[in-house]
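Hi F.,

I've been meaning to write this up properly since the lab meeting, where we talked about keeping a consistent format for the predictions we share between groups. The idea is simple: the sequence comes first, exactly as it goes in, then the structure tokens exactly as they come out, then a line or two of notes. No screenshots and no reformatting. I'm using this chain as the first example so we have something concrete to point to.
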Amino acid sequence: MSIGTHPPTTAVTRRHLPLTRIVPLGVVVWLLVFLQLERLATWLTHELMRLPASTHLGSAISFFIFEVPKVLLLLTLVVFGVGVVRSFFTPERTRAILAGKKESVGNVLAAALGIVTPFCSCSAVPLFIGFLTAGIPLGVTFSFLISAPMVNEVALALLFGLFGWEVAALYLGTGLVIAVTAGWVIGRLKLEPHVEPWVYELQVDAVSGVDERLDWESRLRQGLDAVRDIVGKVWLYVLLGIAVGAGIHGWVPENFMASIMGKGVWWSVPLAVLIGVPMYSNAAGIIPVVHALLEKGAALGTVLAFMMAVIALSLPETIILRKVLKPTLIAVFLGVVAVGIVVVGFLFNWLI
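Output, unedited:
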């Protein structure tokens, strides 16, 4: 090299800020936005659009404006996190952790994990997808999907505050039994061919692309790639599902449901489950409704079965899941869990 020649500087001057700096900043921004969602939804609905909270339309619009960004933000964060974690573990190793000894142990672990994740049924779908793409057995992933919305600390705290520790403990126990048993049953049915092919294609990509010696820049890049692949495929289903849920949330009559949830007729429990399945709410939203229904004379077991159906089985959730699962598997999932919830409803009415 001659004295007057200098090495090219283009690569240095054009170098992007590393992801190890961008991602922490992005997490801070994510948290700030997430914490303001409820306030923003209230302002947009009741201040900017001037829709009263007491109206059906105002309630539905506020619900939609709040839930859409919430679920999409959770979807992005969880998928990104699972993508980064997946860079440390091959699908085979992940499968071994949850189901290497006995798949039933994996069902219990997944259901227990669901207790400490404060997700509604739609928000739990991202982790469900992440588990599937990481190669975790199908039945184990369903145990989490059932447990996360139905048996979480929000539901238990509210039940304890309204009804006492006996009802909260009974709900915890029966909810876990449903999650573990339903996941185990689905696992035994060998329904893996009814998962959409793109999920398994992501598993193949993960196997070929995992290198446990990757640096953090590469691991974060894998997380972003997972967001692009998964969120890009399901976001439209999220919008459609929450739009359905918002309509139901705003217009379902409470007094009508209370009138058919009494203890006197045997069909009240299965009917309450059938009514609850198309609806959509999280535990914090549905438990005050449960309290109101009980004050109007509805039976405890019937109302709690309705509550379980609303937060564990929802029409918006099934719409989102359709991008991942074929109709046969969705039908089996709904049927197995619904039967378990009906049994629990009868048990509550018999014991209390």
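Notes:
Residues 87 and 304 are 41 Å apart (CA to CA).
The chain has one domain: 18-351.

If this format works for you, I'll send the rest the same way.

G.
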